[in-house]
Amino acid sequence: MRIARFASGGDPQYGIVELPEDGGDHPNTVAVLTGDPIAMPVQLTGERKELDGVRLLAPVIPRSKIVAVGKNYALHAAEMGGEVPEIPLVFFKPNTSVIGPGESIIYPEATRELSYEGELAVVIGRICKEVPVSRVAEVIFGYTVANDVTARDLQRSDGQWARAKGYDTFCPLGPWITTHQSLEEVSALSIRTTVDGELRQDGNTRDLVRSIPDLVAYISSFTTLLPGDVILTGTPAGVGPMLVGQEVSIEIEGIGTLLNPVASAAGPSESEAGQ
Q1: I want to staple 119 with a disulfide (CB 3.0 to 4.6 A). Which of 38, 86, 111, 146 is the partner?
Q2: Whole-structure pTM value
């Protein structure tokens, strides 16, 4: 099931996205729900909207936090000049960094090296703390696609990553949340990132150093997770620059494709950023 958050001339709504591959009678539509399924029990309203006629929004705005995991693919750790940490490397991104599909990633004036990082994101469905690995599936609402946008030069200069990872627009999520997938099903999904159609990342979640159950158990050992919190599970090798005017597409098998343009904040043009 695909849960979308969308706008259609009014306040944001939630619905179930119906695609041709589902084999139903209403392809390319959104079946409207009565509320936010992460926050409350919901029902179908009976109303349907054409998918092309609505604007998809970020499928979730985390109520408290985004917890991201660094260097969780061995080849990515190597390309960054290091090894996989002995314990998970985690950091927070503010919920104000979230944008939805089609929205612009803003290139801040403070950086000269803005980078994409395509990732599988886990959406938490219930309040939880100290979750054992064997019960992680019980606290997951679903999965979506994420871009852990990073100002790479600020990451190096600052020593800690709050600024480099935390600017507004630095956490695109979407296009929807897929639910009812088993942990086994999401343990071998291809992740492909393209910039202006050129393939830059071609990874698979089977190469995660620490699995989703291990990550949720570890993170919940030190912080309470709330419904709507998002965990970014790490990025495969192939990270690199994106420039003003380019378009970044991240596709995760069985989940969807997240597409975002890069726009200027009176910052460098494409030619200037490459100098």
Answers
A1: 146
A2: 0.94
